[in-house]
Amino acid sequence: MTSLRKENYGKINREKVLGFNWDNKEYFGYEGDSLASALLANDVRIVGRSFKYHRPRGVMSCGVEESGALVTVGSGSRRDPNVRATTQELYSGLNASGQNAFPNVNFDFGGVNNYLSRFFAAGFYYKTFMGLPPFEWGKGTGIWMVFEKIIRKAAGMGKASREPDPDSYEHANDFCDVLVIGSGPAGIAAAQEIANNKLDVILIEQDSLLGGNSLSQKDFDPYLLNTQLKSSGIRVMPRTTVFGIYDNTVVGALERVTDHMPTPHSNLPRQRFWTIRAKHIIVASGALERHIAFNNNDLPGAMTVNASKHYLNRYGVLTGNNIVISTNNDSVYQTAKELHEAGSKVTILDSRENVNHDLSKDIDLHLNTLPFSINGRKKIDGIDVCKTTDLSNKNTIICDQVLMSGGWSPIVNLVSHRGIKPTWNQENLCFIPGEIKENISVVGSAKGIWDEKNCIESGFVGANEAMNTFGMHKKEISFPSVGGWSNPIEPLFEVKSNKFPSKSFVDFQHDVTAEDVRLAHREGFISVEHLKRYTTLGMANDQGKMGNIIGLSLMAEQLDKTIPQVGTTVFRPPYTPVPIGALTGRNVGKHFRPLRVTPMHQWNIDHGAKMIEVGLYQRPWYYPKKNETLSDSYIRETTIVRKTVGICDVTSLGKIAIQGPDATELVNRIYTNPFAKLPIGKARYGIMLRDDGIVMDDGTSWRLGENEYFMTTSTAAAAKVMSWLEELLQTRWTDLKVNVTSVSEQWAGAAIAGPKSRDVLNECVFDPSEITNDNLPFMGVLQTKLKDGTPCRVVRISFSGELAYEMYIESDYAHGMMDLLWESAQKYDGCLYGLEALGALRVEKGHVTAAELDGRVTIDDAGLGKMASTKKSYIGSAMRKRGVLSADDRDMLVGFFPINEKETFNAGTIVCEKNNIKGQGVGRITSVTHSPELGHWIGIGFVKGGLEKWKDITLIGADPVRNKQMEIKVVSPHMIDPEGKRMYA
Amino acid sequence: MIRIKCPYCGERDHSEFTYGGDASIKYPSLDAPASEWTKAIFFRENIRGMQKETWHHTNGCRLWLEVERSTITHEIKSVKACHPQIEKITKNKS
Ligand SMILES: [Zn+2]
Questions:
Q1: Could you tell me how many CB contacts below 8 A there are between chain A and chain B?
Q2: N- or C-end of chain A: fewer Cβ atoms within 10 A?
Q3: Best of A176, A248, A740, A885 to disrupt the B interface by mutation (most B CBs within 10 Å)?
Q4: How far is B57 from chain A, CA to nearest CA, in Å?
Q5: Most A-contacting residue of B41, B57, B70, B75 (CB-CB within 10 A), to test interface
Q6: Nearest CB to B64: which of A247, A669, A726?
Q7: What is the pLDDT of residue A568?
Q8: Could you tell me which of A268, A267, A263 has the C-alpha nearest to residue A77?
Q9: Phi-psi category of A707—alpha, beta or left, where left has phi over 0 and alpha has psi -120 to 50?
Q10: Which of A575, A616, A609 is nearest to A592 (CA)?
Q11: What residues have a C-beta under 5 A from ligand 1, the ion?
Q12: What is the chain B residue with the closest CA to A436?
C-alpha cells in the first residue's frame, strides 16, 4: 500500500520541504507535519515493537493518546525515548528511530516472544518470583534471578541518554482571571465570550496549532483563528499542556519551547514549567476515540477513525486506499464520506441494526456486522468479519487499513485531579465529569457533547459561569444535553468467540489483551485497582487513555456488574509525561539550592581557605599550607590555637536583636538558666528547650542595655529559633512588649582564640585598656571601636576552651576587621583556622553542637542539667522530667577514647558491649577528631547510663557500614582543661 | 497549590508559608503542672473538616496567621493575624 499526499488537502506548508532521518534512512516531509504524518506519507508503516511480544506496531492515533508510535528522537545527550511520533512536530534534520527492537523494528529478534506468549500472560513478572510454571512452580525465585537480567534488557521502552542534559529549562509563573484549557469549538467560544467582557483570559493548547478537533476539518484555518483570538486580547499559549489542576484553581503546565526546532537551538530554554494561578478554569479538553478489542487489532494500519480524518485534512495524507471502518456510533460517517471523496474505497461495518445516514452508493455499509480478525503479518491484507448474530460464520474483506471507533471518552483526567469522580452515562457509553464545587467549568466534548453547535453553546454557558465568579451578569442559557448522535451508540468493546483463541489488545503499549484481563479475574484480582497493577493495563505512557474503558467493560462482564459498579481508576497528574528536567528548572548544578556566603567569603578564599558547605553556608573548612592535607592542616591549626592564637570566621551563627521593655522577660522565659539578673555588659550561655522538654538549641545572649539583648544561635537552628520567638510573641505571649529582628546578615563575626588572643585584640581596638582582664572578664561584653574608628562589639567567650573572644562588626566592614586581626595575629605566629579545627577544639572540650543536639536529647542527657533553673518556670520546665526523660538508662553525653591509641573511629560508630555486637548497641559516637594535645583520636557521643555505668569497661565501637570494629573506653566528655582555667586566664 | 490570603501581604502561594500547628490549643502557663502540658502537647484532635491552624508567613511579612482550613478539600474559610493587636490593624487593610 502506498499512501498519498493529497493535493488540495492539509494545512502543511508545501513550500517548505524538511529532510529528516528515520532508522538511518533519509526522508522528506513538509513544514506543519508531525513525525507520524511524515512517516505515513513516506509509507513507513512499522514504527515500533510492542513491549512484551515485540509485535510490529504502527501509528494508531493522531494525538497524545498514541500507544503505537512511540519512538526515540535525537541522539547523544539529546536522546529522548518514548516520544509520541503523533505529537512530535517535524523539523529539518530530525533524527528518530524505532525502539524496543533489535536490530530494527522491521526485523526484530524479540518477535519470538510472540510465539511464547502463554508464558508472558498477565502477572508474568510476579509469577516468576514464585518460579515459572509448570517447571518449578513454588520452588522459589531461582528462575527469576535468571530471567531478571534478560527481562531488564528486553523490557523498557527506549533508552534515555546517560549523559547530562545539555538543555536548560525554566520555571515560569503567571496569573489570569480565566484560564481556558483547549482550543476546540467549545474552548474558543468560551474564551472569546469572556475576553469580550474585558476579563483577562489565557487560552492553553497542547498542539502547535489552534482548533482542537476542528483541525480535522478541510476548510478550517487555524492561522486565522489565532489572529482573531489575539486581537480580542486573549493570551494564547500553544504547545503547552496543562498536566494538572491543583488547589485554588492553580494549574501546572508544560510549554515545549524548542522541541519543534532543529538542535542545537538558540538561547531559549527547551521547556517551561508554568504555574498559573487563575480565578476560574474552563476545561475544554475534548474527548478521545476508543478502539475495539478483537483479534490482531494492533497490526500496523489499524487506527482510530478520527485520526485518519486528521491525517487527511490536517496533513494531506490519505492513510489507506482500501479502508474498512468498524464502528458502533455515528461519528465515523462524515469521515467515511471524506475518505471516499479523497479517493479511497471505503467499507463500513456497523454493529447496530439500523442506522439512518445519507451515504454515497460507493460506500459499502454492512449493518449488524462485527470485525472479527485482521489478517496479515506486518501489514493488513484483509479483515474477517461476521454478523452480530453468528460469530462462527466469517467473511473476508480485502483491505489495507482498518479504522476503529468504539465510542468516545471525554477527557475527565484534569477534573479527576480535583478528586471529582466521573459518572457513567449509559446512553453515550462514557464517563462524564461529576459535579464540581470549585470555580471550574467543563464544556464541549469533555462533558460528553458530540455536536459542534452544542459544543459552542456549552462554551457560552461555561463563559457565563466564569463571569459569575466575577459577579458579572448572567445570560439566560442552559447547558446543552449530553450526546448528540441521531442513532444511539450500542456497546461494542470486544469481539470474541470462545472457539477461536485471539489476541485482542486492550492496552497496546503494554500488550495487555482481553484474555489477560479475564486471566487476572480468574486469579482473583477483582478490584479494578488490583487489575490495573496486575495486568499493567493503563500503566503505559498513555496512562490508559486508549484502553481503560474497554478494560473496565471486560471486568464488568466477568464480575457480572455494570461499568459504574466496577468503578474507574483515579487519574492523577501529570496528564502527559513531564520531563524531570522541566520539574528541576534552573535548580541544577550550582543553582541546586541557594548559596550563602559570609561577608568575608572572598577574604577567606584570598587567604587560602578550602571551603565546605554547612547547611546553605560556605564556611572555611581548613587553610592548608603547601602540600598539606585536610588532616595535616586542621591538626596544625588546632595546635596553634592552643599554643598562640587563631582567627576563625563565625558569621554563620544566627543573630537576633531583642528589643523592648519586656526583652528581659522573654529571654528569661525561653532559656533554662536565669537571665533576669544578667547585668548590662554581660553575656550568658543559655539553653532553650522545646515545649516537650527536649533541647532545641544553645547559644549566648548579651545584654546590651536595659531593654536590649543580642542573641546568638547555632548555625543550624538560626531560622528555627527566629520563627519560634516570633511564634511565642505573636500567638502565646501577646502581652509582652518586645520585638525580635533577625540580624544574622547584618553582623559579621570572627573568633579570636588562644593564649595570645588578648594581645591580638589589644592591637586592633581603639583603646587597648578596655580589653584588660578586669574590664573585660570572661563573659564580658564591650561595644567599642576598631583602631580605625569603626564601631564593633566584643564578647569574651570561648568555644575552644582557650582564652578567647568573638568580635562582631557591621557586615560591610568585615574585610577591614579581618585584615586588622590577621595582621596582628601573624606577629604572634597565629593562624587562620576553619571548621575542622573548630570542631576538633570543641570536641576536646566536650562542647555539643547540632550533631549531639539532634532532637532526642534532654538537658540532663547533654550533661548540662545544672543549667536548668529550679527557681523559675521556662519553656519546657514542666515537661523535661516527665517519665521516660528521667529514666536511669538514658543515653548520656560522654567522651570516647580508643583503647589502642593508634586506632581511629568515625562519627556514626555504634557503641556495643563486648560480647553483644548487634542492633543499636548501648550508645553512639556523634563527633570525632584527632586531638593533637592528647596525641590520639577522641570522640564524644552518648551511652546508656553515662560515664558512671561504663567507666573502666572496654566496649566495642562497631562501624558496620565501613566494616570496622575497635575497642574503646568511655571517659568524661571534658577531655582537656576540665576546670576551665585557660578561658578565665 | 493552596493560596492563602495573608492579611498583610495579600493572596500568596502556600510555598511562602510554613505550617505551624493546631491553632485551637490553649497553652498552659509556664508554671502549670506536667499533666496540663501533656494534654496540650500530646493529645490532639485529628480533625476531618474545618480546622483552625497556624501558618507562618516565613517568606513574607513573618506574621503568624490563624487559618481556618478544611482538611478534606483544602478550602480556606478565614485567615487572620494571631496577634490580637496586629489583627485589629490588618483587618481594616484587607
Ligand atoms: Zn504576609
A1: 75
A2: C
A3: A248
A4: 10
A5: B41
A6: A726
A7: 79
A8: A263
A9: alpha
A10: A616
A11: B 6, 8-9, 57, 60-61
A12: B73
pLDDT of residue A149: 60
Q: Which residue from B minimizes the CA distance to A728?
A: B64
Backbone conformation region of residue A792, classed left if phi is above 0, alpha if psi is from -120 to 50, else beta: beta
A370-402: burial string, b at 16+ Cβ within 10 Å, e else: bbbbbbbebebebbbbbbbeebeebeebebbbb
Do A929 and A976 form a contact (C-beta atoms < 8 A)?
no
Given an 8 Å threshold on Cβ–Cβ distance, is A879 in contact with B32? no
Residue B75 C-alpha, separation from nearest chain A C-alpha, in angstroms: 8
In A284-412, beta strands by DSSP E: 287-289, 302-304, 317-318, 322-327, 345-350, 364-366, 369-375, 382-387, 390-398, 401-405, 408-410
pLDDT of residue A1: 39
pLDDT attached to residue A2: 46
Select the residue of A419, A727, A882 nearest B64 (Cβ to Cβ).
A727
Please answer yes or no on whether A731 and B83 come within 8 Å at the CB atom: yes
C-alpha cell at A502: 485471539
Q: How many Å lie between the centroid of ligand 1 and the Cα of residue B93? A: 12
Strands A345-350 and A364-366: parallel
pLDDT given at position A809: 98
Here the ipTM equals 0.98
pLDDT for residue A972 = 96
Give the per-residue pLDDT at A107.
73
Partners of A250 on chain B (C-beta within 8 Å) are 1, 3, 13
Task: Walk me through the domains of chain B, giving residue ranges and CATH numbers.
Answer: 3-93 (3.30.2270.10)
What sections of A388-444 are H helices per DSSP? 413-416
Chain A: give the shortest CA distance to residue B2, in Å: 5
Contact B30 A873 (CB under 8 A): yes
> Is A692 in CB contact (< 8 Å) with chain B?
yes
Q: Chain B: residue nearest A672 by CA?
A: B30
Domains of chain A: 1-161 (3.10.20.440), 167-290+408-490+571-586 (3.50.50.60), 292-406 (3.50.50.60), 499-561 (1.10.10), 596-652+746-841 (3.30.1360.120), 654-742 (3.30.70.1400), 887-984 (2.40.30.110)
Count of CB atoms situated within 10 Å of the CB of A437: 9
Amino acid at A590: K
Tell me: the pLDDT tens digits for B27-52?
A: 999 999 999 999 999 999 999 999 99
Q: What is the reported pTM?
A: 0.91
Q: What is the mean pLDDT of each run of 10 residues along chain A (985 residues)?
A: 77 96 96 97 92 89 94 92 96 92 72 67 60 52 59 66 92 98 98 96 98 96 96 97 97 96 83 98 97 96 97 97 97 97 97 92 96 95 96 95 97 95 95 95 98 96 96 85 95 89 90 92 87 85 88 92 86 94 93 93 98 93 96 97 98 97 98 96 97 96 97 95 98 97 98 97 95 95 96 96 97 97 98 97 95 95 95 96 91 97 96 94 97 96 96 95 95 93 87
B13–chain A nearest CA distance, Å: 9
Cell of A455: 459544543
